[in-house]
Amino acid sequence: MDYVSTRGAAPTLDFEGVTLAGLAADGGLYVPARWPTLSTAAIRDLAGLDYVETAVRVCVPFVGDALDEAELRSLLRAAYGGFAHAAVAPLKQLDARHWLLELFHGPTLAFKDVAMQALGLLFETFVSRRSEHLTIVGATSGDTGSAAIHALAGRSNFDVFMLHPAGRVSDVQRRQMTTVQSPNIFNLAVEGTFDDAQALVKAMFNDVAFAGRFRLAAVNSINWARLMLQVVYYFYAAVRLGAPERRVSFSVPTGNFGDVFAGYVAARMGLTVGKLIVATNVNDILHRALRDGDYSVGNVAATAAPSMDIQVSSNFERLLFDLDGRDGARTAALMSGFETSRAMRLPPAMRAVAATHLVSARVDPGTMAQTMRWAVEASGELVDPHTAIGLAAAREADVDGPVVTLATAHPAKFPDAVERASGTRPGLPLRIAGLFDREERFDTLPADLAAVEAYIAARATPVRRPAVAA
Ligand SMILES: *Cc1c(COP(=O)(O)O)cnc(C)c1O
Known about the structure:
Layout: E1 3-5, H1 15-20, E2 30-32, H2 40-44, H3 51-63, H4 69-81, E3 91-93, E4 98-102, H5 112-130, E5 134-139, H6 143-152, E6 158-165, H7 171-178, E7 185-191, H8 194-206, H9 208-213, E8 216-218, H10 224-240, E9 248-253, H11 258-268, E10 273-280, H12 285-292, E11 294-296, H13 316-323, H14 328-341, E12 343-345, H15 348-357, E13 358-362, H16 365-379, H17 385-396, E14 403-407, H18 415-422, E15 443-446, H19 449-457
Parallel strand pairs: 4-14, 5-6, 5-8, 6-7, 7-15, 9-10, 9-14, 10-13
Antiparallel strand pairs: 1-2, 3-4, 11-12
Helix pairs in contact: 3-4, 3-10, 4-5, 5-6, 5-10, 6-7, 10-11, 16-17, 16-18
The structure holds pyridoxal-5'-phosphate (PLP).
Residues 110, 112, 143, 221, 253-259, 307-308, 386, 408-409 line the site of pyridoxal-5'-phosphate (PLP).
């Protein structure tokens, strides 16, 4: 499979190249040159397969020759072997129409582990082939950071520099990052919002001199491999609920638009997806964009669902590219207009295509709390604030057939917010017991590119230059 940039002016890469790349050289994001499809018969054949086998079938066309099928299978077995639930992503029925897809059974209690556990092994495989050293820079609204750190701690071929917005992640989220005492892990608390941290990461990838000194790689959903690994659970869940004979809708608590974009990819691959419900909190740029065509950046409000406190959703660019006839020059023009004015109007034709797949909702804090209580009353399930937002949007949406809400985090990740809203304080699962007894390690930096680059340059391993013959 070849991968092309959404801005049309970067080299084409294969799966190995795209996994190790950050942003494309033209500032765009990599996407497959075409969507592979699974036939109705192939989708029917997924019935009864376990998570890993489903993942193999879904990923093979994207991976191409970069790994053979046996290597891919054993990598995925290793990635998911440590999950606390044998089904990896179990479905739970709430009432006649609503289901939860529990994606939080990995080591750090959020859905980010599903992709990151496998991405860590893909990095390891590809980097050891090239005997290289990778410098991983990432921005996190809380969950990507811990998932990446747990996937990569102690691996000597990597240094990880993870930027989180100071004071804007939950204590559990922060401690899951800062208590990992491994010499290759560096936590940076940036004085700003997640959008500031993400902008710094993008600026480092775009800084040719800096990126050239280190072999920078991305763990954010900039990275295509992460999205591919998330496509899997849409197939896994839909097939369990009757696909391809039945359409299944999904409600997705959304921030950076990666998770819901993976659902869009599943639909493009032929999965019988009903609607994809883009659930936002009061940071509702995506809801405004899909409803009115108004993609303009507002101020970021800090909420009980911090992983959705985002205004500039990186992966939206991938959707724009696909909706706009996959014309990189046009996407580049749209994005450069947006980067200057911090606003963009979505043309009606693009909105019409988007509307065939996507609907959206904005969920305020009161409705979030009420939905959390509803879940406990209706079915005894305690859900986290992000999941509650997804569930609220699912209950409001005008869609036929079953609706699966992605349960993106375990409630124990946000104990204060869950207790405030539901009256019940979730206990820490055994796999993170002791989190509050461990020592934290992080440095605080201003949201300033030069300061962050200097910090990293003083600690990262530069690219080894080939020895020059005398
Ligand atoms: C990351 C995250 C989201 C948002 O997912 P995106 O792919 O960024 O849209 C939602 N909920 C939780 C718990 C998350 O960690």
